């Protein structure tokens, strides 16, 4: 486990580089990421390259015993390129082209941009292929940031039509699959199908879903183009990409198939502020008010990108100070640079790299904090980052965590659900997090897997809001349960097929036999309505969504207790072969989510401990367990018969300990 930093030599006079790099090495940093966005300096005029400055910076880094991570500069095509090829500009749904003057203004499907991207990638990669100091590459930067996965230009229209032809073969098959008899939406030819621009009323959900898939696939292709070129230049390099937290539009599993590992950019006080886990945004912002972010918002992204990597991942950018974010931008609490680094390592990060080394004096990001201030003096985070680096050096090298519970994460279902939420609060990330939180408060290591993953190695699998279930997926889930798996399904699951259309039979369609029940009614609920449910003899609250179930072989283990739903089955459990399926027809409050999780974990034989104090988490990696305390107050740790190898048995607020032992043997209590 190592630390890194993001550095932009092109922003500083050369005389300052040596001092910056010297101090990075002194802070224990191992990796320096550079050249992100530097196209105008690498190729100031078409075909006139200048790699000397970057080569000098790479050598400086190498001379101090660190390694460089270089980036393809394609997130920021320079002005001359835009002027030469105006068609590369991305277009909004109403046809407005994005202007020069910011970043991510290009279209992934522009043939001209693919040609230009190939050229700059090839030339830069060739130039550094023999450098002993370059460890690997980041492709582009944050694909999709600022809502840029989905473009609506003419190049995208042509590419979308080709994508549809490939998928459906005939236009009749497309009309049938989407159900275009509705509102006279039938097409006579693929060339009639446009990207979904502005319409008076809502769009056809099947068309939206395919556009979401097509747009994500376009990024996959574009990333592959770069990854292939980089590997051709030097196949010892790693190739990664820096994804974003809670980001909807891009399938991280698909993009990562062409990467050596995934990386992501973690800004805990920003993501914590945005996460809509509660219907009350002021409450959601409370996590940020605590200035440490929300451990499960950050943790769930760590788990997702570990899943996308299929092993260790990187945090390519970790928040290093305040963030230029809206609505609020509080300074992180003392200790967070170190605690966030350990939290990431505990989840399987091999490198935590801070954004950025030095706050920039000009441009759009003067208000983003850094490890150093813009005058070069150390800022609050630097000593903490250095402490984390020193502690990492004292810990052994560890393999990635291995979960015993799988959470199925399905981008298709998210895209379909978010196009038809039925309640403003129906957010896929937030729904998953309800169950993730419950599992994590029991110290469980959770693996995030795509819906088509092999679940054979997992005693329990949780599939929250798995909305689109094609027949083959239903068959695999049924086999998993029949073979002894414990499957937890939740609201809106298997309601539709892969085209986002309802089936002939009621939900959960092809899973009805496994679940032993079907859904008779569903409703979305505004905050303020009474929502009570009874599970296993205890009463709980729920939010946002409710279903009334009709058992057909399943045991009713939970019933509605409010209003028109009173008395209707809300949770059922069904034995199927050697395992069980549990179907939860409400979005549970935290205590009910805990009861449901414990119920499934017990039957699956997953060892768990007591419920952890709020905002304290145990994370196990290769036989070591981190106790991370995101609270303000201290907690006491009883490590059982295991040794505490870092920290002590009293862990102060925003502090941590590492125990050489499994998480279920560790007890944590408020001091
Ligand atoms: C990230 C981005 C960086 C920088 C950073 C600001 O989203 O990748 O380039 O803009 O935010 O902290």
What does this protein look like?
This protein has 20 helices and 27 strands. The protein is of the alpha/beta class and 671 residues long. The protein folds into three domains: 332 residues, TIM Barrel, CATH 3.20.20.80; 200 residues, 3-Layer(aba) Sandwich (Rossmann fold), CATH 3.40.50; 55 residues, Sandwich (Immunoglobulin-like), CATH 2.60.40. Helix 14 links the parallel strand 8 and strand 9. Helix 5 packs parallel to helix 8, helix 8 packs antiparallel against helix 16 and helix 17 packs across helix 20. The longest helix has 29 residues. The protein starts with a strand and ends with a strand. Bound molecules: beta-D-galactopyranose. The site of beta-D-galactopyranose (GAL) has 8 residues, from loops. Beta-D-galactopyranose (GAL) binds next to loops.
What labels describe this entry?
single chain, alpha/beta, TIM Barrel, Rossmann fold, Immunoglobulin-like, eleven-stranded mixed sheet, globular, binds beta-D-galactopyranose
Q: Which SSEs are present, and which pair or pack?
A:
Layout: E1 2-6, H1 14-26, E2 31-34, H2 39-42, H3 52-63, E3 67-71, H4 79-84, H5 111-128, E4 134-138, H6 154-168, H7 171-178, H8 205-233, E5 238-240, E6 242-244, H9 252-256, E7 263-266, H10 268-274, H11 281-284, H12 286-289, H13 295-309, E8 313-319, H14 336-346, E9 349-355, H15 381-394, E10 405-409, H16 411-419, H17 428-440, E11 446-450, E12 460-463, H18 471-482, E13 486-490, H19 512-515, E14 517-524, E15 532-535, E16 538-551, E17 555-560, E18 569-576, E19 579-584, E20 586-588, H20 590-604, E21 616-621, E22 624-629, E23 635-638, E24 643-646, E25 650-651, E26 655-660, E27 667-670
Parallel strand pairs: 1-2, 1-9, 2-3, 3-4, 4-5, 6-7, 7-8, 8-9, 10-11, 10-12, 12-13, 13-19
Antiparallel strand pairs: 14-16, 15-16, 15-17, 16-20, 17-18, 18-19, 21-22, 22-26, 23-25, 23-27, 24-26
Helix pairs in contact: 5-8, 6-8, 8-16, 14-15, 17-20
């Amino acid at each position: 486990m190592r630390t890194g930093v993001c550095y932009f030599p092109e922003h500083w006079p050369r005389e300052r580089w040596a001092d910056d790099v010297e101090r990075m090495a002194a802070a224990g940093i191992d990796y320096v990421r550079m050249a992100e966005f530097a196209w105008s300096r690498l190729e100031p005029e078409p075909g006139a390259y200048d790699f000397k400055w970057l080569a000098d910076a790479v050598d400086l880094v190498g001379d101090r015993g660190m390694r460089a991570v270089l980036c393809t500069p394609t997130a920021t095509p320079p002005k001359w390129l835009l002027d030469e090829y105006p068609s590369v500009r991305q277009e909004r749904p109403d046809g407005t082209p994005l202007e020069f003057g910011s970043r991510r203004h290009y279209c992934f499907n522009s043939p001209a941009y693919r040609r230009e991207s190939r050229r700059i990638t090839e030339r830069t990669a060739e130039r550094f292929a023999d450098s002993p100091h370059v460890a690997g590459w980041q492709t582009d930067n944050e694909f999709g940031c600022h809502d840029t996965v989905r473009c609506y230009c003419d190049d995208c229209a042509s590419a979308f039509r080709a994508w549809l032809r490939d998928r459906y073969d005939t236009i009749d098959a497309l009309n049938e699959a989407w159900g275009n008899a509705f509102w006279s939406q039938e097409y006579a030819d693929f060339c009639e199908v446009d990207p979904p621009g502005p319409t008076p009323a809502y769009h056809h959900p099947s068309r939206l879903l395919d556009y979401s898939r097509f747009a994500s696939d376009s990024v996959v292709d574009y990333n592959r183009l770069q990854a292939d070129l980089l590997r051709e230049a030097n196949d010892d390099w790693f190739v990664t990409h820096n994804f974003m937290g809670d980001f909807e539009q891009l399938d991280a599993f698909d993009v990562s198939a062409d990467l050596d590992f995934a990386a992501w950019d973690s800004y805990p006080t920003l993501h914590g502020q945005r996460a809509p886990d509660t219907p009350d945004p002021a409450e959601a912002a409370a996590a940020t008010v605590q200035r440490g972010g929300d451990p499960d918002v950050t943790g769930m992204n760590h788990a997702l990108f570990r899943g996308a990597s299929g092993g260790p991942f990187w945090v390519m950018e970790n928040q290093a100070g305040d963030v230029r974010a809206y609505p609020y931008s509080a300074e992180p609490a003392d200790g967070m640079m170190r605690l966030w680094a350990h939290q990431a390592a505990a989840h399987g990060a091999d490198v935590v790299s801070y954004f950025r080394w030095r706050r920039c004096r000009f441009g759009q990001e003067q208000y983003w904090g850094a490890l150093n201030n813009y005058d070069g003096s150390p800022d609050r985070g630097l000593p903490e980052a250095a402490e984390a680096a020193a502690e990492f050096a004292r810990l052994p090298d560890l393999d990635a965590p291995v979960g015993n519970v799988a959470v199925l994460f399905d981008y298709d279902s998210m895209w379909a659900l978010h196009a038809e939420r039925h309640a403003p609060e129906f957010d896929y990330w937030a729904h998953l997090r309800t169950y993730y939180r419950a599992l994590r408060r029991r110290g469980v290591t959770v693996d995030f897997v795509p819906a088509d993953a092999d679940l054979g190695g997992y005693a329990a699998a949780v599939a929250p809001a798995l909305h689109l279930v094609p027949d083959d997926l239903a068959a695999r889930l049924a086999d998993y349960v029949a073979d002894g798996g414990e499957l937890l399904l939740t609201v809106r699951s298997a309601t539709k097929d892969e085209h986002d259309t309802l089936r002939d039979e009621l939900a959960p369609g092809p899973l009805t036999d496994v679940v032993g029940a079907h859904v008779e009614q569903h409703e979305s609920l505004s905050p303020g309505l009474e929502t009570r449910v009874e599970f296993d003899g205890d009463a709980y609250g729920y939010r946002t969504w409710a279903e009334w179930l009709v058992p057909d072989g399943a045991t009713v283990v939970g019933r509605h207790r409010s209003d028109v739903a009173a008395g209707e089955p809300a949770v059922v459990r069904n034995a199927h072969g050697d395992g069980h399926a549990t179907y939860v027809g409400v979005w549970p409050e935290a205590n009910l989510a805990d009861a449901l999780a414990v119920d499934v974990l017990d039957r699956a034989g997953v060892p768990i401990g007591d419920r952890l104090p709020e905002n304290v988490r145990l994370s196990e990696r290769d036989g070591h367990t981190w106790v991370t305390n995101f609270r303000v107050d201290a907690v006491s740790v009883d490590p059982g018969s295991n040794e505490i190898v870092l920290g002590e048995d009293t862990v102060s607020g925003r502090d941590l300990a590492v125990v050489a032992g499994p998480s279920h043997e560790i007890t944590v209590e408020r001091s």
